């Protein structure tokens, strides 16, 4: 090991050189190099780490078409070196900073080179934002100091670069010759870079985004120019409409983050304009819903709708000019989604969350504009109830997996629907009573038939059980 340490830079250079010829051992080699750099940076002198960094970059420049896993390993090594050496100076210069400038040769080059440059920027952003296994025992203060410095000196420029390149790429995307594998990789890498920038842990709170509850992106005040002209917001809606489903879901993923930027980034007037454009973009997706048949697009769009109410007040939404038409389209989309109960059931939570939060906000709305929830929540309630009764029939007749067996999901949805159903509660009660009477009457008719149609009886029993135990009980409880 001591021998290796003394000649580390040359050894790693030799490893990199052989990677292009021996793919089988390439990952092992690069992982070993990465561990050497990560676990004990003092093993290598500053000069050696600079040499390795420069050599990796020059090797990628000479060999832009390496196997993807080889390129990834080199990119990870380069990114780890950048993070570890962030505060180190060489000849009075922070040699590991100015990441865009150091990658300018890649970013301004042909598509293959540009993809490599974007991948490096994306990996550096991830590397600095997260705590790796090798970082776990190190000072959290130092790690946060690195992340804060990167946020303040580099991240905004990287995000702006990603947006500029995306604008250029989306124009080229309209040209059929642009849609080959290389350009597809470029677009995918740019979208991933943009997402990594706006999902950065800006204030060091390590938020659990998986919960999606009251999630806010803490964009720094210095980023205001990127959002005040609303071009960034519109860009990702344009990308969604222009790209193929395999890429458009990434545009929606970015929109989920952009829709969640902290309210205090804007004053009241600016926030109103920003929300108006956001609602307009959502309306344009609902008016052209073809891409929502893709499960990834559908899921991310449901998340986007949920964020609409998480970050904005109902009183602000109703003041948007396009709100009446948008809420009508959202209601139609929700009804259709509930009726297709076998399609992406995990996404329904986000739709119901939107309606639940809007209904819960009704008592606090002071705006004179109508919220129209009394018109559309009964439609949502009816679609939910009738679709669950239909599910009982299909499960029994076709022997499918019973969604009611997922008690956690059922309980969550019923908690949401019990609040939604409280809007126009009389209509909800009338619907439940009507459906229960119809089901009970049909059950009685079947029981009196000789011989008894056992399958039909089982269907009605399933409907009665669903209706009474899960639905009526929940609404009465609330």
User: What is the mean predicted local confidence, pLDDT?
Assistant: 85
Number of distinct helices: 22
Q: Label the overall shape.
A: elongated
Residue fraction in strands:
under 5%
Span of the ends, CA to CA? 68 Å
Low-confidence stretches: 1-5
Q: H/E order of the elements?
A: HHHHHHHHHHHHHHHHHHHHHH
DSSP summary, beta strand count: 0
What is the alpha-carbon Rg in Å? 28 Å
Helix amount: over 70%
- Largest sheet report: none
In terms of structural class, how would the helical and strand content be classed? mainly alpha
Keywords: Cytoplasm, Nucleus, Protein transport, Transport
Protein name: Exportin-7-A
Domain Exportin-7/Ran-binding protein 17 TPR repeats: 393-464
Family: Belongs to the exportin family.
For the structure shown, list the relevant keywords.
disordered N terminus; mainly alpha; 478 residues; XPO4/7-like; elongated; 22 helices
What do these coordinates show?
The chain is mainly α. It contains 22 helices and no strands. The radius of gyration is 28 Å and the shape is elongated.
Tell me the layout of helices and strands:
Blueprint: H1 2-6, H2 8-19, H3 23-39, H4 46-62, H5 68-84, H6 99-102, H7 104-107, H8 111-129, H9 140-173, H10 181-198, H11 224-228, H12 231-242, H13 245-258, H14 268-287, H15 295-311, H16 314-317, H17 323-339, H18 345-361, H19 373-398, H20 407-420, H21 425-447, H22 454-477
Helix pairs in contact: 2-3, 2-4, 3-5, 4-5, 5-8, 8-9, 8-10, 9-10, 9-12, 10-13, 12-13, 12-14, 13-15, 14-17, 15-18, 17-19, 18-20, 19-21, 19-22, 20-22, 21-22
């Amino acid at each position: 090991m001591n021998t290796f340490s003394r000649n580390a830079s040359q050894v790693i250079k030799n490893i990199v050189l052989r990677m292009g010829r021996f793919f089988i051992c390439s990952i092992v080699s690069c992982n070993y190099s990465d561990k050497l750099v990560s676990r004990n940076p003092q093993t290598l002198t500053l000069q050696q780490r600079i040499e390795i960094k420069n050599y990796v970059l020059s090797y990628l420049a000479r060999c832009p078409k390496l196997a993807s896993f080889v390129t990834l390993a080199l990119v990870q090594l380069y990114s780890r070196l950048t993070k570890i050496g962030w505060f180190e100076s060489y000849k009075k210069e922070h040699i590991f900073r100015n990441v865009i400038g150091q990658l300018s040769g890649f970013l301004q080059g042909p598509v293959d080179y540009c993809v490599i440059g974007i991948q490096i920027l994306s990996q550096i952003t991830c590397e600095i934002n997260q705590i790796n296994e090798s970082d776990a025992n190190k000072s959290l203060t130092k790690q946060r100091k690195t992340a804060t410095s990167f946020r303040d000196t580099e991240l905004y420029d990287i995000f702006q670069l990603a947006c500029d390149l995306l604008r250029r790429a989306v124009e080229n995307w309209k040209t059929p010759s642009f849609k080959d594998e290389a350009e597809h990789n470029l677009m995918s890498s740019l979208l991933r870079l943009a997402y990594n920038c706006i999902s950065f842990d800006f204030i060091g709170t390590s938020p659990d985004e998986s919960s999606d509850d009251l999630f806010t992106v803490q964009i720094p005040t210095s980023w205001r120019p990127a959002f005040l002209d609303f071009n960034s917001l519109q860009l990702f809606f344009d990308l969604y409409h222009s790209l193929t489903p395999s890429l458009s879901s990434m545009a929606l993923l970015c929109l989920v983050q952009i829709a969640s930027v902290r309210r205090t980034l804007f004053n009241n007037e600016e926030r109103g304009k920003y929300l108006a454009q956001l609602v307009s973009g959502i309306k344009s997706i609902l008016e052209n819903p073809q891409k929502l048949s893709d499960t990834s697009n559908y899921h991310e769009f449901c998340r986007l709708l949920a964020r609409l109410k998480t970050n904005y007040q109902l009183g602000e939404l109703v003041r948007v000019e396009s709100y009446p038409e948008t809420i009508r389209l959202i209601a139609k989309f929700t009804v259709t989604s509930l009726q297709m109960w076998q399609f992406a059931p995990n996404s329904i939570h986000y739709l119901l969350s939107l309606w639940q939060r809007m209904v819960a906000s009704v008592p606090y709305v002071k705006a004179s504009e109508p919220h129209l929830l009394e018109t559309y929540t009964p439609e949502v309630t009816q679609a939910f109830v009738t679709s669950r009764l239909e599910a009982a029939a299909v499960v029994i007749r076709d022997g499918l997996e019973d969604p009611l067996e997922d008690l956690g999901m059922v309980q969550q949805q019923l908690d949401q629907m019990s609040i939604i159903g409280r809007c126009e509660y009389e209509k909800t009660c009338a619907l439940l009573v009507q459906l229960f009477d119809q089901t009970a009457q049909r059950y009685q008719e079947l029981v009196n038939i000789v011989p008894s149609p056992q399958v039909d009886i089982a269907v009605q029993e399933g409907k009665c059980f669903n209706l009474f135990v899960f639905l009526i009980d929940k609404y009465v409880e609330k």
